[in-house]
Amino acid sequence: MNHDDLRHWSKRAADWAHDYHAGLRGKPVRAPLIPGAIARQLPTQPPEMAEPMETIFADFDRIVPPGLTHWQHPRFFAYFPANASPASMLAEQLANAIAAQGMLWQTSPAVTEIEQVMVDWLRQSLGLPVEFTGTIHDSATTATLSAILTMREQALDWAGLTKGLQGQPRLRIYASDQTHSSVDKAMRIAGLGQDNLVKIATDATLSMTPSALQAAIMADLAAGFVPAGVVLCAGGTSVGAFDRMGECIRVAKAHDLPVHVDAAWAGSAMICPEFRSLWAGLEGADSIVFNPHKWLGAQFDCAVQFLRDPGPQVKTLGLRPSYLQTAGREEVVNFNEWTVPLGRRFRALKLWFTLRAYGLEGLRGRIRNHVAWAQDLALTLGKVAGVEIVTPPSLSLFTFALGSDAATEALLTRINDDGRIYLTQTRHQGRFVIRVQVGQFDCTVEDVQMVELVVRALL
């Protein structure tokens, strides 16, 4: 295949993509397959000779779409969305064609400088203070790991980078019991150990209790441990919990502890000023992550980490051998020093296209609709006999259940086997509940109302 062939097949792919999205509403959201069904359709040996692209494309069309869970389906209400707006898709096509490696400013100045500007556009869009800057990661998991590694090194005065962790004091990180498992994973990968992630109890509002945070810090100090940082939750994955930012940050700062805020899903909603009361006091944090790929239409992967002062993270993650230096340009930003990987994709391009193609008002309108539609759905679903709304809407996320875990789990299985909608589960206060999360880029109010119709039909 050469570039002349690419021109032809790119057009074919664009036509295929148009037809795929146009027909999604009529497809089951989740593939009705058993494990191994796709693999059995593939040859067990790699090809020795080149094959015609016509054959390859036909195999793609035959095998791949029927084996997908359709994340862009307008009735995908599971997990959180991984939205890909048409403008973002176009930008990704161009970024793929350019195939730039943006590890340094000099390896592609446009990649670095557009990223700098896009991060600041988003800072302004969320109403964050001017002192915040930041970078783009692949996912919130990587951003959180970067924050935890930085907390570790600040607590050890950067000795862990060179001497390792053997013989170092026991470091403690504090988070609510509503935080994402990525925090636990970061503790493992950072060498701090999951047992040193202190989960703080939450109150009736599902917020970390500031007094409990204070008590945990004091207990660890008395035990000879070293508090290293606090992770706060702004829109938890399970049921959408929010910590009381201002109060918890004040406790952390009284002990000179850095604070990282996980707003991976809910952060996008803060382009709407009326929702910002949910994270009041956030401006006191040191690090904040949110995922434009979840609710702003920027194709996965695209996680933005804001940093009040990038210095500690650059000091933790940066490593500049002679072959990565930019001669005579020491003042430039090299984003590989802000993140874990050395290699970096041109992720900022899809933000540039998406923000311009829809505008903040267009994106706000979508988010406001999703929140309103979720609230209306919770009201109507709660009136269905036998259905209990367990956690009320947090923005566009709520949960419901039947009278027993077994009945709820059986209902979820029937719903997803039916195929018209896709929902997932969580456990809340020991109870099996079904999550409904409205946020797919192209969903309509009729798509959202389908949840009630399906539940009624399958009870």
Distance between the termini: 53 Å
Strand order of the largest sheet: 1-7-6-5-4-2-3
The CATH topology label of the domain at 101-345 is Aspartate Aminotransferase, domain 2
Q: Hey, roughly how much beta strand do the residues contain?
A: 5-15%
The number of helical segments is 14
Q: Can you give a write-up of this model?
A:
By secondary structure, the protein is α/β, with parallel strands linked by helices. It has a domain of 245 residues: Type I PLP-dependent aspartate aminotransferase-like (Major domain) (Aspartate Aminotransferase, domain 2, 3-Layer(aba) Sandwich), CATH 3.40.640. Helix content is 41%, strand content 13%. The strands form two sheets. A seven-stranded mixed sheet has the order 1-7-6-5-4-2-3, sandwiched between helices. A four-stranded antiparallel sheet has the order 8-9-11-10, with helices on one face. The radius of gyration is 23 Å and the shape is globular. The N and C termini lie far apart (53 Å).
